[in-house]
Amino acid sequence: MEARQAFRELREGKVRPFYACFGTESYLMNEFADRLTDQLAEPEHRDMAVVRFDTAESPLDAVMDEAETLPFLVPRKIVLVRDSVLLASGKESAKIEHRPERLADYLKQPLETTVLVFLVPHEKLDERKKLVKSVKSADAAVNFAPLGADELLQWVAARAGKQGRRMAEGAAAELLQRVGTDMHALAAETDKLCLHAGEGGTITVAAIRELVPAATEQNVFKLTEELAALRTDKVLALYHDLLRQREEPIKLMSLIVRQIRNMLYVKELGGQGYSPQQMAGQLGLHPYAVKITSEQARKFSTSRLARLLSELADLDYAMKTGQTDKALGLELFLLRTSSEKAQ
């Protein structure tokens, strides 16, 4: 089951007795747990209705004892279990003994007054384990994968809309370009912009540029975009801004190398017929990052990208051996690259 379906069921009032939530998008996973808690427990009853465990610290027997105990003074209770051991391939502590067969037996006839939720912060469940097969047979596995590029833009706009604000055209994209794809950071910045816009107000691109500082990695995204467009003045302005922020030239170069390498990978995978979603999985990137990287890669030939990587490797050696000043060496590379004709 995808996260979208699990959220939809909650909105419709359907709550399952057991969930195994997994995936790399921790923001959505935590939001699901919060919404589930809000739906089943009144704020004043949370202490009695919500019980938390971690399989790195507590044996599964303790979890199951709690799950099989009737709730006290509340109609239903929620047992939230952080897990990297039982359902994923995390390292198990030798001090804690788990008996997975107890959970497998429980899934055959779960208690109606308990909602048992395992939160597994891993990309996949370990399908080699019998317990995972039992979980999947019960249709209880929920995948919290990163949102696609368009979904993330819609999510930002929807978050502003819930607070009575609207996003101007291009504002959501500008926010992602400055903050990146981390949903925790995006939520915080969106809420800040909503406060600035006021009730019924509009979040503009200008307000985002004024109020939201660009993360270093996002500045490097922008820098490579300006390199591709051969806008030397903007390339150097961005670089000098980063130096004023006391960013280390070697760190900046490594980020540039990573982005150029990703552009090369995207071009190669695209040529082999990979979809953006498949590329994201292969490269370990967020789908939105793949979208931006693909757009940048179209402005470079494969041979030019390979040559830039070779030049950066030579520059890295020269900088680390003291043959050239780090800040000046990288600036000359950027000046030369942004001034040459694409080939």
Model description:
By secondary structure, this protein is an alpha/beta fold. The protein has three domains: 3-143, Rossmann fold (3-Layer(aba) Sandwich), CATH 3.40.50; 149-211, Helicase, Ruva Protein, domain 3; 216-339, Up-down Bundle (Zinc Finger, Delta Prime, domain 3), CATH 1.20.272.10. It contains 17 helices and seven strands. The strands form two sheets. Strands 2-3-4-1-5 form a five-stranded parallel beta sheet, sandwiched between helices. Helix 11 (216-228) packs antiparallel against helix 12, helix 14 (276-283) packs across helix 15 (287-297) and helix 16 (302-320) runs antiparallel to helix 17. The longest helix is centred in the last third of the chain and has 23 residues, at 249-271.
Give the overall average pLDDT.
Answer: 89
What structural category arises from helix and sheet content? Answer: alpha/beta
Named CATH topology of the largest domain:
Rossmann fold
Number of helices: 17
CATH superfamily of the largest domain: P-loop containing nucleotide triphosphate hydrolases
> Roughly what fraction of the amino acids lie in strands?
5-15%
Report strand order across the widest sheet: 2-3-4-1-5
Element order: H for helix, E for strand = HEHHEHEHEHEHEHHEHHHHHHHH
The unreliable regions are none
Looking at the overall shape, the CATH architecture of the largest domain is 3-Layer(aba) Sandwich
Share of helix, binned: 55-70%
How far the N terminus sits from the C terminus, by CA atoms, comes to 46 Å
The number of distinct β-strands equals 7
